[in-house]
Design brief:
This protein has a single domain, classed as 3-Layer(aba) Sandwich (Rossmann fold), CATH 3.40.50.720. Helices cover about 50% and strands about 15% of the residues. It contains 9 helices and 7 strands. It has helices spanning about 15-30, 40-55, 70-85, 105-135, 145-150, 155-175, 195, 200-210, 220-230, and strands at about 10, 30-35, 60-65, 90, 135-140, 180-185, 240-245. The two termini are about 35 Å apart. The protein binds NADP nicotinamide-adenine-dinucleotide phosphate (NAP). NADP nicotinamide-adenine-dinucleotide phosphate binds near residues 16 and 144.
């Protein structure tokens, strides 16, 4: 059964990693997909577009810096004009600039907060008019378990993800009466380019702490995104769902 047939979906940062896995999962269920990217080469973006189009859905990509308010506003407006609506907004774009707070340059604080947190303000502001007009919408924000627990060496990243949780809960409270839902997915350790940067010994140390004894894969996150995007979750808002193999329990 196609759970998202005709749903129009906007995803930030879906050229690779978790965002791409979510886009593929939702397209396989019939959703039309618009996605953004920023640093990826054209070949990678075209490969993603081709893989999505193979499901017979509408596909559009935007070279848009998620931190840029005006550019995001334009991308969302162009997507709504092209697809004729917007049903699901997924904020996935994210970066790390890890360092101990003592050594963290101001630029690394600003970059992480702008790409990970301000980006959510940008897309939600750009989407609200459409959501309010149609009296429905599902917003899914990809945070992290470190936004709940904190993490030494990731003060900027953890603060940005904690901010996403506070922002999401506020959106759920402000807009629930208009049938606009907002939820957070908080992944643990998921195998992507982001975690590949970590030393092998550190990756092993994380693995040993995970009760389910395996690192997560992007599809584990995509399965939850499918649920939150679909009408199967229509009575769920303001929640934080951990996809972490039990790591933060
Ligand atoms: P990734 O492999 O590094 O991919 C990041 C994605 O974000 C790419 O598509 C990238 O596109 C996009 N992006 C980065 N900066 C952007 C910007 N300024 N504007 C638009 N797009 C931008 O990371 P990932 O592991 O898939 O992570 C995806 C999300 O999950 C992030 O929010 C991350 O914090 C979160 N997360 C990941 C893990 C994990 O273990 N991997 C755990 C918890 C949470 P371009 O390269 O084209 O810019």
């Amino acid at each position: 059964m196609m759970h998202l047939k005709g749903k129009k979906i906007f995803i930030t940062g879906a050229s690779r990693g978790i965002g791409k896995a979510i886009a593929l999962k939702l397209a396989a269920e019939g959703g039309d997909i618009a996605f953004t990217y920023c640093g990826s080469d054209l070949e990678a973006v075209q490969a993603t577009e081709a893989a999505l189009s193979a499901f017979g859905v509408q596909v559009k990509s935007f070279h848009t810096d998620a931190a840029d308010f005006q550019a995001t506003d334009k991308a969302v407006a162009d997507m709504v004009a092209a697809f004729g609506g917007l049903d699901v907004l997924i904020n996935n774009a994210g970066i790390t600039r890890d360092n101990l707070l003592l050594r963290m340059p101001e630029a690394d604080w600003d970059a992480v907060l702008n790409v990970n947190l301000k980006s959510v303000f940008n897309t939600v502001k750009a989407s609200l008019k459409t959501f309010l007009k149609q009296r429905s919408g599902s917003i899914i924000n990809i945070a992290s378990i470190v936004g709940i627990s904190g993490h030494a060496g990731q003060a900027n990243y953890a603060a940005s993800k904690a901010g996403m949780i506070g922002l999401t809960k506020s959106i759920a409270l402000e807009l629930g009466s208009r049938n606009i839902r907002a939820n957070v997915i908080a992944p643990g350790f998921i195998a992507t380019a982001m975690t590949d940067q970590l030393e092998a010994s550190l990756q092993q140390a994380w693995m040993e702490k995970i009760p389910l004894k395996r690192v997560g894969c992007p599809e584990d996150v995509a399965n939850c995104a499918l649920f939150l995007a679909s009408d199967a979750s229509s009575y769920i808002t303001g929640q934080v769902i951990q996809i972490d193999g039990g790591l933060l329990t």
